[in-house]
Each structure stands twice: as C-alpha cells, then as structure tokens.
Fold each of these.
Amino acid sequence: MSIRHGLLALLHRGPMHGYQLRTSFEESTGATWPLNIGQVYTTLSRLERDGMVRGLPDDGGQRPYEITEAGRTALSDWFATPLTRADRPRDELSIKLALAVTTPGVDVQAVVQAQRTATMQALQEYTRLKTREPEPADLAWRLVLDAMIFQSEAELRWLDHCEASLVRHNQPPPVRSVTPAPAAERRAVTS
Amino acid sequence: MTVLEIRDAYRTHGDGEAAVHALRGVTLTVRPGEMVAVMGPSGSGKSTLLNLAGGLDRPTRGEVSVEGRQLRTLSKRQLAAMRRRSIGYVFQDLNLLPSLTAVENIALPLELDGTGVRPARRLALAALGEVGLAGLGTRFPDEMSGGQQQRVAIARALIGERRLVLADEPTGALDSQTGEAVLRLLRTRVDAGAAGVLVTHEARHAAWADRVVFLRDGVIVDASRPLGQAEQLLGSAS
C-alpha cells in the first residue's frame, strides 16, 4: 500500500489539512503505520501535481485539500485491484533462514528458537491489546490487530515447520544444540 | 508461593531398548494469577507434563508439588481428594456423563467429595452462570451444542475453590469465536488468583498465557513472556 492511496481514501470523506490527515491515518490503521508530517505534505504535493487532489484556500493558517475526480478514480481502482505477492516487501526472515542453513557455522536451531520466542512475545502483546479492548472495539483497529495476530501465528507455524525439517535433515536430532552440525550436512531445507 | 512446582521431572515408559523418554528433566513453576501455555509438536511430552501436574501420573524421577504438597507423599485417597478439591481439568474430549444434566455433571466432583447435594448444586449453578449458561442447567449434554458442552466442562473444572486449572487443548474442535470465549473464561479465573496450565498447539491460543514454554523431545527448549512493549511493536509493524 502507498501513503498516496491512504490519503486519497481519507480525503474521499471530505477536505482535510495535513495534520488532520496524519491523525486520521493513524487512527484508521491503529497506529501501526506512524506517519511524519513531512511525508504527508510531500505526498500531498505529488498528488496535487498529478491532479488527484486540489488545494483549497487557507483556513486559519492551515491549507485544506480536497480529492478530485481523477483522485476518486485512482482510489476506486486501488480498492478494485487485489494486491499481488510482488507488491509486498520481501520477507527478511525467510531469506535469513535460507542463508542460515547454507552458511557454515550457523546454529540454525538457535536462530529458529530465538525468532520463535520473539514472535511469540509479539503475539502475546497483540493478544493482550485485543483482550484489553472493551467490546465492541473499533472495527478498523480490531481488523488491523487481527491481521498482525494471524501473521504472527503463520510465522510461528512456519518456524515450527523449519524446526521439524531441520530435525529430519540432521538425524539424530540434537536436543539442546550448541554446536552447529558439520557444514557439509547443511543444505537448504527450503527452496 | 507457587501453586504448581515440577522439579527436574523425568517420565519414562517401558525400559531397556524399548524405553520411551516422555519427559527428560523438566522444571516448571506456576504462581497464583499466572497462566502458562505449553506448546510443542506431537509426542513432545505436553500431555505427560499435564498428567504429572494433575497427579494422574507419577514422574519416574523428580518431584511434583501442588500447593506445597508433594504428590509423591500422598496416599491414593489423599491424592484423589486433592484432585477433586484443588485441581480442575478441561480435557479435549469433554468427559461429560451423558446421563447427567449440565448441573449434575458440574456438581459431581463436589458430591463425590462429600459436599451435600444442595450446596453442590448451588455452587454448580453459580459456575454455570460464570460460563454464561445460566438457565441451561437441566439440559443433557446431547441437548447442547459443542460450544455449550465445552462450557459445561469448564464450569466443572472451575467449580468451587480450584487453585490449579489444567487444560488440554480446551478449544479443540470449537470455532474461533467460541474458542476465544473459552480462553476468556480460563483467563478470568486465573486473573482472580488461580494458576493455569494450558496445553495447546495453537500459537494464537497460547498467546493468552503469561508465559509460553516450548517442549521438544521431553525437554523445555525455550520460553517466552510478553515484553510489555506493545506500542513499540505496533510502531515497527510497518
């Protein structure tokens, strides 16, 4: 997702100035994506240059913007087009694991365990936030939180899978592996 | 003060070549107000650990204490009494008796323990209310949905002054909303001062615990507790 589309979606509700946009953006994404005001103004000026928004007369020192017809079309195209896998950032963790299994001297199980602990802690925190929310919580915020919960869960399942694959790969399994297996035995477990 | 203390516990089934080492030196303590989740692949020793904690099985070596009493030193009768009074179980298969109503199922452990029928029923009704099923006390298990039956099983585990609640995949076959309701009930009781141990293979459910321990091949390989830094995590989620 780009900040452009986020701002267009907010301006679709009605004209707003930069600070209002920043606040609304953070509110609707549950503060998962903090924006600085500089990013907001840079994006607004590009949107204006591209004819997607239009600046309105100053309103007490703040300049509100409104969405144009071209902006509405771009927004509706964005909602109508599914994200492709290629649009998303590369997953550093899978690359790290792939490199860990092919780099001599790396204790891959320790890498998996450290990551699992960290991801589990994150999942516990998200769950805590969710259970702390009075019902019914704000829907947008809850959905964003659920997305993070499901992503953490998927990552944990994948880490379990990595661990099981490592154990199968390096029989007999070391229970508390401190020394890495010989480099020659280390081949990628993921392709 | 700990409610559950497992110290350097080993559990071996069989001997010689055929010996299976279900647990190999596990140490775990659970304090009042604390919920610990146990995760791990099948065969890692999760259920064995829970059975030791509940006095359903004895360690080959090591100690298990509940509320300061070493289970090894108790007679069969004393152990059974402790299981009925202090320990609540929620099993994956609910173990509800089909010929008893919801209230009768819940009251059963108290009645077996010598509590009079009336006070036992009164406590059972209160427990049923606690799990949100007030009014369904006269239903038989087969007249209730899976989620409702699970709540009855939980009410049975929570009735009275149970200080240790042990749950083995309590959200088993439930949909995610009902599963969450079950976890909320366990969490509420633990927050009120009980100690809880939750065996699960679902990370999303384990995350309700204060601490998560991972078992592999009968050994605790790592443990996690919340960082208390939710805001930072959210900030970096972009």
Amino acid sequence: MPSLIDLMLEGRGVRQHRPWPRAMVDAQLWKFAASELGQGRWSLLDFWGEPATVHMAIMDEHTAEIVVVSLDCPDRNYPSVGKHHPPALRLERTINDLFGLSAEGLPDTRPWLDHDRWGVHFPLGNRVDGSSRAVPYRFLPAEGDGLHQIAVGPVHAGIIEPGHFRFTASGETVVRLEQRLGYTHKGIEGLMTGESLERAVELAGRVSGDSTVAYAYAFSRAAEAALELVVPDRAVWLRALLAELERLANHLGDIGGICNDASFTLIHAHCSVLRESVLRASNTAFGHRLMRDVIIPGGVNHELDDEGREIIRTTLDNIRLRFPALVDLYDNTASLQDRTVDTGVLKPALARQYAAGGFIGRGSGRSFDARRTLAHPPYDSLRFEVPVLTEGDVNARVWIRVREVEQSLSLIDQILGRLPEGPLSTDAKLRPEAREGMAIVEGFRGDVLVWLRLRDGRIERCRLRDPSWFQWPLLEAAIENNIVADFPLCNKSFNCSYSGQDL
Amino acid sequence: MRKLLFESLFRQPFTEQAPSPDDAAMAELAAAVGHAARRRLGRSLSIREVDAGSCNGCELEIHALNNAYYDVERFGLRFVASPRHADVLMVTGPVTRNMRDALERTYHATPNPKWVVAIGDCARDGGCFAGSYAVVGGVSEVIPVDLHIPGCPPSPMAMLGGVLALLERVDAGAVLP
C-alpha cells in the first residue's frame, strides 16, 4: 500500500506551505488519490477550489499524516473525486457554484449553494451574470406504493437556522430524506479575499456563532503557521481555556436540547441554567458571553484576571455539583431512553467513510479528536480521555457529550492550575511573499479546518471548512427507517451547523 | 427526579428582575403601535423567530431568553412555531439573497397587526457581511422594521428590554404623534 509520503514524492512540492506538506500533482496522480479515498485507505479532510486550481486535504488515519494535493485545471475541469468517494459530492458541486470548475464524471451536477438568486454565477471565479429566472431544484425521486412527501423549511418551527428538508415517507416511516442547504450563504470566503488579518479573523469568528472560538482559533493558527509565528505560552494556554469553555457551554445546551426534543423538559431547564452560568462566567472573564473576537493571529487580546479565574472556578464547582444528578436522571428515565436508544443509528462504516468528526464520529466508533490525534500545544501536555462508543444512536451521541463535559471540566482545572505568566500576543510580522498555512482545531461539533494563503500581509485565498460538511450527509442516512416524529431528536443529536456549511 | 423537583421548590428562583425598557427603543416604537393593537393583543405577544442568514449567534441568545434566568413567558411573551400564530417577527442576520424570498413570504403569512424586531448588528445593515454578492443587507431592505436591537449578538437582557418596550407600547395604546 503506498503511503501518503509516496504520493507527495511523485508530485511537485510547494515550499511555502506549513505545517503539513502540499504538492502539485498531475491528473493521473489525482485520480489515483481519488481511488485510494474511494477504497477507504485515506480520509478526505477537505476539498476546495481556487479560480484555476483544486485542492484536497487527505489524512492517513493510521499514521495521522496529512498532505494537501493540488491540481491545476487550465481547462476548467478536473477528474471527479465524488465519483469514487461520495463525501466529495457536495464539495464538488460547491466548487462548481463558486469557481465554475467542473468535475468530470460527477454523478450529481445540481447546484448546491447557488440558488440562482445572487445575480451572478461563479462569484469567486470567472463571473458571469446570473439568469433572472430561478430554475426549480430537482429533488431525488423516491417511488413506490403509498409514498408521500413532506417538505419542511427553510423557515422551521423552532428557533433554529434555515434549511430545507424533503422527506419521503411511507406512513410514518422515513424512506428518504434529502437536504437542501445554502440558505445562509453569505459569501464569507469571497469577503475575506484581499482583506487584512484583523478583518479576516473577525469574519472567521462569524462563520458559525456557536463555534466562534474554534474558528478564530483555527484561523489564527493557520495564519501563524503561514507566517511562522511563535505564540507566547500564556496565549497558547488561554486559547485552550476558551475552547474548553465553548465546548462546555455547547454540550450542556445540546444535552438539554436533545432531552427537550424527546419532550423531557426538566433536564432541558436545568441544563439551560448550567449553560447560562458558563456564558456569564465567560462574560466576566473575557468580556463576551460567546467569547467572540478574543483570539487573534499572534495570541489573544484579553487578559484573564483573578476575578475571571475565580468565577470560572466557582462555575465549574457548581456544575460538578449539579450535573451528575441530571446525568443520573437521563440514565434512569425509561421513557426518555425509549426515545434515544436505537434511534437514528449511524453505522460506524459510514462515519469512517465520511471521516465524521465530533460526537457524531466518536458516537459511531471513529476516535479522531484533533486535540489528541494532532496533539498541538497545550493539549500535548494535558491529561484527558477521548470517549468513543460504537452504538451510533442518539443515546451514544448524548453519552459522548456527557463524557466530554466531564473531560472539559478537568481540562479547565488543569489549564487554570498551570497557566503560565507572560505576554498575551506577539506582533504578526507581515511578509511580502506568498505563504500558506493550515490548521485543524477541535471545535465542539468536530474538527474545524482552515487553509489560507497570505501575500503582502493580505488574504489571497482562505478556506474555512466546518465539520458539518461531512456530518450533514450522514443525517440523511441515519434517519432512514425512523419515524418522522423522531427527526427533531435525530437532528438535534447531530446538531450540524447550517451557517458553517453554507458559509 | 423527585429530589430534583423537591429541591426546586425551596431554592431561590434563578429568575432575575425585568430590565426597564430602554428609552431609545421606546422612541423608535412610538410610531409603531396603536389603539387597535392594544384591544386585540391585551398583554401578550406571540413571537416568531426568523433566521434570515445569521451566523447562529443571535439564535443562541434568543434561546437563552427561555431559560430560568430571563423566563420571557412571565411577561406573556411566547415563541410560536408558525408565522400565522405570531404578532411579532424577530428577525436575525444579514438577509441573504437565498433567504430573501422566504423572509418576505413569512412576513406576508403573519396576520395584521404585526411588528418586526430586527436583532443584531447584521440585521441593521448587513454588519460585517455587507457588500457580499450573496447578501441583500439589513432586514429593512426587505420588510418594514419597527424596532432594532443592536449587538453581536445582543445580550438576552438587551433583547428583553427591547421587547418589553414593545409590549408596554402596545399596552399603553400609544397614539400616533
């Protein structure tokens, strides 16, 4: 079996790429990589475009090696990867929408983010004026006796983001779910192009509101990798503190939310109180409830004082006191277990194929956690466990969150105990030549990947990949043969980001 | 479970004092609410939340309005599942071009009298997303807005203050100036 390094050696290395290698490959090698992905030897981490190039980030799960392979496409097309490896399908449709580069042999050529409303096609490539007449979207057919369709969204019944779900049901049972997303597409990658680092990190922090820390973290690390900046120790540790607080708040909210969707509001009410306590502590400690705009390239811009440290400690003590009773209640309420056990099962093979991250992957046997697998500082010197279950049902995804809450509590304790003194940031020295950087950071819902190229201190191209890209399609699979009424429960247990995917 | 419920009986409630409706919001509302509304709505408002393209930050804080600390239901404010049940549309986000249609249709599905509250900096003028090929701009470019609550995202208290101002105005039966 050829290793990723062999693949790299066959291509032409790009020198200014950090920290993982990148190589320009020819169509032959590109096809080879696609077929290896298709056979499950490697995992696809991301797939993105530029006006005349396509890039794939690939990982070998056994060795945690990562490489980026790039293919120039002067004729505006490239051999499809999605043909061999379905996780690439939506990404190839997106590359066509944004850049007008088409994948030869792509089985599904419908637009993905482009709803024909922008007034322009291929906005990041060779722009052409959009048509004024929106063409109806063709949903995939499902045929059979007594099947009916239920169309939901983009405006949903709850306080959630917009997206369209097309169910085909036989009686109460879902036969097929097809998602149509893209409603919150704001053109963030387009807005970033040509911007300064300050403005770009602000945009990165607004890709997905619940992961604002994770995005600013990943963006900053990518920029620092490109510029070969060394971040002061105190900032390295404070960033992990911010990331764990964000994970804690979101997991508490999710555990309550899932129980609420199973009509068990008591746990929801109590979890909401705990979540609120984390947000308030974050506000006192870092000046913002969601800790937005605190992480910047070069470090962090908010000091943690004694008051902040104290309130985080008090909040954690309170959670340690209250949370176990809620977990007990979850575990011992038969009516609740009846809803979550064996519901929305995601098979481990699918989680592996899609390289699904976060509680979705770890609830279905995929142990990847960027904090452990890639072990960047300070996680390389912190003690924590990565919980993994193989059942793949709603219940497993709840338990992964419960265990991760416990791990985050312990991590925050360790960080507060060992927080080094020193400066908060270092100046980002801008360089005139092109430099490329990439970073992967574990957000609460999975690994956030950022790749960028800087030139003259400005963003030439920045790609932000939400974990949801490889999780949304799995929801379509997990809901099959469940009843329509369990969809909110399954959906909440996945809790994919709309805005993160739509970008 | 019994222990948990029992404890709650004796513990001090988490719920906090209502904020006073802020003056700026009151002024903005003066023109928006009339006599007819007071008669029809009494002291309660049903709110339908519409995400017109936000990053989900505002939604998180709107969710928080329902927790025990803010407890909006004590003021007769309720989040409803359909625009057809709503008096108020609470709209977040820069309006994306892909959501424009859905927002307009939601507005038209809401019965009169109705008010629109735009939540967050993006909802005013597109915020940091203004100028993108995929973004229309603020909410008022698509539907009329009665009240705007700034912030990125606004804190639950700020939202509560704004909506209470709306409710008070409805309740007082303000006359057009």
Amino acid sequence: MFDWLHLTIPPAPAMFAQLLVGLINGAFYAMLSLGLAVIFGLLNIINFTHGAQYMLGAFCAWFLLNTLGLGYWSALILAPIVVGVVGILIERLLLRHIYGLDHLYGLLLTFGLALIIEGVFRQQFGSSGQPYAIPPELQGGRNLGFMFLPNYRAWVIVASLVLCLTTWFTIERTRLGAYLRAATENPVLVQAFGINVPRMITLTYGAGVALAALAGVMAAPIYQVSPLMGSNIIITVFAVVVIGGMGSILGAIVSGFALGLVEGLTKVFYPEASNTVIFVIMALVLLVKPAGFFGRAS
Amino acid sequence: MAESGRWKWVLATILVALALAAPFILYPVFIMEALCFALFACAFNLLIGYVGLLSFGHAAFFGSAAYITAHTVKVWGLPPELGILAGAAVAALLGTVFGWLAIRRQGIYFAMITLALAQMVYFVALQARFTGGEDGIQAVPRGKLLGVVDLGGTLTMYYFVLAIFLIGFAVIVRAVHSPFGQVIKAIRENEPRAVSLGYDADRYKLLAFILSAGLSGVAGSLKSLVFQLASLTDVQWTMSGEVVLMTLVGGLGTVLGPVVGAFLLTAMQHYFAQLGSWVTVVQGVIFVFCVLVFRRGIVGVIASYAAGSRNPPGISETAATGAKPAEPRTAAAPGAP
C-alpha cells in the first residue's frame, strides 16, 4: 500500500522546472494574499470576491484582446482600472452598509458576490478555459545551463516581486501609507485630523481589487482564462493567509512565495500530496503558532 | 411560558402530521433530499447559531460520511443502519481533528481554516482510489434495515429518512435547551465572562463542533443512500456555501429556520435545474440580499413579530471584538487628547 512512498531523486532539470512552477504559483499567492491583507487591514473584511476579481482581470484582458484588439501591455494597465472601478462600486453600494456588523457578514456578502460573478461567467463560457497568447516580446526563453527559463515566466516573477515590494514600500514608507496605517489603528482620530477616511476606505478597496485584477492579467497567458480560475486559487490563498498571519504586508509576500516553492518541491518528491501540502502546513502552523508566522495574537 | 410551550407542541404535531402525509402529495424524492439538507443545515446551525462559529467547511463532514456509507454498504455489504453509523463516526472523528485545530482561532480565521481543511478533504476524495474520482461511488444499494425492512421502495425509504431526521432534529433541540446549550450560548454572547465563570470555553466549542460534524455526517450518509450516490459535489466548497445559505435564509440561531431554508433552496434547485449556472447566480443574489437587509431570516422575522422585538439570534449584529472601521479600536488611544 505504501509503494508510492519510494522517494526517488529526480533529474536536476525536472526539479528546477518544478521549482520554477512553484515560484510562479508563489508569485500569484503573494500578490493575492497581499491584496487580501491590505483590504482586511482597513475594512476588516475578508474579501471572498478576491478570486472572482482575479478572474475578472484575466477575462478583461481576454475581452480587450478579442473585441478591441488591445494586447497584453494595454491590458496590464486597463484591466486593473476597469476591475478596480467595479470594486469601488461594490464598496460604495454594498460593503458600506455592513461595516457596523460582525465581520462574518462581510465574508458572507463577498462570498455571495463571488457566486454571482462566477455564475455569470460560467453561464457564458462554461467551465473550459480560453487561451490567451504570450505577448510577442516575451515569447521564447533562454537556456540557463541547468534549466530552460521561458521569458514570460521570468517576467512574471520579476514583475510580481517589483509589485509586491512597491506595495510594501507605499504602505510602510510613504506619507500615504502612514495615513493608511493610522486609519487602520484608529479611524476616528485620523478623521478628526481632517482626512477623509470613508474615501480612503473606498480607494483602498479599489486598489486591493486592482491588484487582484493585475495578477489575473499576468496569470492569463500561464493558466487558461477560465471562470473557475479564481475559486480554485482563493482557498489556497486563504490557507497562505492563515499561515502567514494578516498582521504584516511583508509576511504576506514572504509566505506567498515560500509556500509556492514548498508546493513545487512537493510536486518533485511526492506529487500525490502537492494539492494538499499547503493545507497540511496550515494545520501544523496552527498547532505550533496559532497566530501565524507574522501575525499578531488575536 | 406555558402558553408558548403549548403552541410549540401544536406546531410540532401539525408539522409531523404534514411530513407523514407529504409523500402522497409531493414528489417523495424531493422531500427526502430536502430532509437530508434540513438535517445538515440544523447541524450547521448548532455551530453558527448557538456558538457563533461560522464553519465554511461543513461539506467535508457531509461528503466524507457520504463516501464512507456508500463504500461500506456497497463494497463491505454492511446493512444501512451500520453504514450510516460508520459514516457519522468518521465525520465526528474528522470533526474532532478539524475542531481541535480550528478553535485555536476565532471569527474570520475560523471560517478560513475550516474552508481550507475542507478543501484538503476534497483533494483527498479526488485522488483516493476508493472514492472513484470524478465518477464517485454509484449504484449504492439501499439494503435491508436491520436485515428485515427492504428500503428499496420509495415510501419505505421516505419514512426511514423522516425517522432519522426527526431523531437528529430532536437531538439538536435537546442539546440547545440543555445546560450544555446554555453554556455555549453564554460563550457566544461573552466568551471572557463565560471563562471567568469557570467554563472551559474551548472544550464546549469542541464538543459542539463534534456534535455538529457527526450530525452533518448522518445527513450525508442518508443522502448517499437516498440517491444511491456519493460524489465530489458532496465534498466541494460549494456544498459548504449552500448549507450556510440555507441557514441564513431560514434564520441563524432559530430552531426551525434551517429546515425552512433547506426546503426553500432545495425547491429552488429543482425548479431552476434547467437554468444551469444561473442557479449559482440566484444563490449569490440571495446571499447578498440576506446579508444586507434580511439578516434575521424567515423564521427569525416571524419569531420576532410573534414575540415583539427582541435581540435577533445568531451572530451578533454588532462586532463583539475588534473595531468597526468607523470607530476607534481602543477607547484610550495613544495620542488622544
């Protein structure tokens, strides 16, 4: 029964290839958990719609290409704006009404929104994926000696790192970020100093959603553009968030990339567990450090 | 008090009489499905409604019990009553582990942890050999109850399902009104105070979680016998979402709410079955509607009209811990004048 436990060391190129896949997945975990953490910090809402908004970003890129003929680079700018505006509308029209309630209602409301968005897209496109081509500038790849690195994947890793660090810098090191952190701690006091906190909440939600959409555009050429892409990834991202703890931006980034790598490694040594390894790690972390690696005890 | 107690008995008698007559009026398979989901929703409500814990992973208990019952009855040839016991036992065991892990965190984290753990069960069900992957376990025999009563007939099966549902429902009602139920409600209202009175809050939460998981398992086992099928749908996160919605529509923390919600949503799925993914959209719309303007649910609203205005049951309307975004987190913030 345990014959599948015979671990063999795979050839190096296969291992590096899986590590690369893990790093790419980790990049998306990091970007998505970052957005979740930013939104949670100010709104105290776990944005269940995050996965659907990531999917919206990918579909937005697909629509821009197939209806307006606008390619990847325009989509990289336009899709986050479009989806971000949708997010702002959601915040203004719906989320605003439940801030005074138990946080669980925020989870339920955004879960309902995710069902609506995904249901509409599944009705239109079915469960199968739509292909989205890699932009011509990033096609091909280079041989690093020990492995073959496709250019697009290198771009995703670099771009996501830059994006994550920029977000971290904005929140931790700029004046705007200081307002944001202050409003997280004590919104009434910040408002008393003349800062429009409700507008800041709206824009923060919009920015978090735009981040998810941007991740969606970057994901489009790697995974297929499918209505289910969001719900598949969001539950894993929740586990990443539990492991990292929501207290810190840097924690979200580090745990995202690290868990992607762990998942890639598991695929090399013990492929059967690659789907579940993050959840197992979550269970172990809960045993040892319930608040998560970077979290503050609740 | 005696007056309202008498009304409750009258209502219960009418409902049971209706349930006994129902298969002659309505499509029995539909009522059986609704009863399974009603038991599932009641078990779920035990956690959200009375302990205030939102589990987003109850499909794990429902689905794993469905698989266990289907497997033991079909492959091992167990009689249905033992198959259901086996399913419920595995669900309760799973509930012990998940509950033990999840009660380390509260509120939103609790929901995320249960969701993630349930997703792990989903992947196991997808990959394990005995679950049949995408096909599930099909053509599960209903067998003979206690070796005597053949459950193959729809009416016999219906009364069997009704009996199990009533037993499960009675267990939940009894638990809620017992001293145990009073303690878990106290923990929901004010955990630090319950702890200061000497109650081991975590132990009570875990007990409630195990009870809820086990009864969800009974519901899942029953469902696999009714439809003679255990499939991936039973363990998927959408199933966890559905049970949340049923309870929310009916009324969190009300005794009959989950039953009403389960019947409504099962009926909706039957009538809208040809609409495909629009069912998901309608479910989402109901979610949003309920959260925004209908948080008490159908039974909650009726009950509050009947009893004058009282505090709604279920998760409290205002945040018990943490801050609302519009209010200060601490009363005396550093730097405050």
